[in-house]
Amino acid sequence: MDEGYIKYHCNWIEANNTFTEQVAALNVWRDVMYQKGWMGMYSNGIGYGNISMRINGNTFLISGTATGGVEKLDDRHYCLVEAYSIEHNSVTCRGPIKASSESLTHAMIYETSPEINAVIHIHNMDMWNDMKNKIPTSHEAVAYGTTEMALEIKRLFTTTQLAFSKIMVMAGHEEGIISFGKDIAEAGNILMDAMSTR
Description:
The protein has six helices and eleven strands. By secondary structure, it is α+β, with helices and mostly antiparallel strands.
């Protein structure tokens, strides 16, 4: 299973997480996603799902790699993405854990619109099947966590209604759905509304 593995070049600066207030805000919705099974761990031990919040400019706090199966996250499970390069497939992150494998995808969403301040990536097979190709959907040949996915996000912003719907399906990443918003509550509520209208 091509899942949960970092595909970018990671420049990790090990450090304490100083964003306790932001972690608490993220965890309100991360807890909801975990309880619904939209973030978690498969039977093979691979975790899925991630969540982030813009801190300043294009820096953002994101859940760490391999944290999907952890029931309750705390400061030890988040990392600050300080810099990245789509062109060079690289991420510089600072924290007690390496940043999520989906960091470049989150980075491109933040880069595309300064009004976006939170991103949630979940897995849900029913929603994925129902919404695929009915809402903005990435090409099925594009894998998660790659520079190609970041560029696919950029394409969807310019050729579809993604900037307005704020939710998309990752066709090449089975079960993968991304939402975003002006804050974490909007990103979370978009997913809740999508599930309730299925």
